[in-house]
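Q: What structure does this chain adopt?
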Amino acid sequence: DGAEGMISWAKKKNKHANITFICADVLSTLDLQHMQFDLAITSYVAHGMIERERKTLYALLSRLGTKYVIIHDYNDRRSVLTSFIERLEGGDYFTFIRKAREEMEKCVSEMRTCFEKVEVVQVGKRANWYICTPAKES
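A:
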């Protein structure tokens, strides 16, 4: 996660679990070239990136997660408050909520499809889990 507060909260909630938490900017400060995990998760990250950055994120996650990638983020059910805040932030929220699944399904990096399967599960009034199966290297 990019926020120390979220890392602290996660550590408190998982005191007895064998989990490594890392605080970093996923696109620029993480050196994960030789790392892989059974599961890679992001939460409310993708919607704040522009499409090019999201493609980079999807490609990275598809390499890091050997079994599954879960992208927890907004669905297309907007609220007035969220729309107002996202417009002020100037991110790419409005494009993301329209095209999230399509972007993930069409993601190709280095001549390889990022995900072989994308399932969408609504987990909240305005949130989805995009459960992605990373494409196997051929």
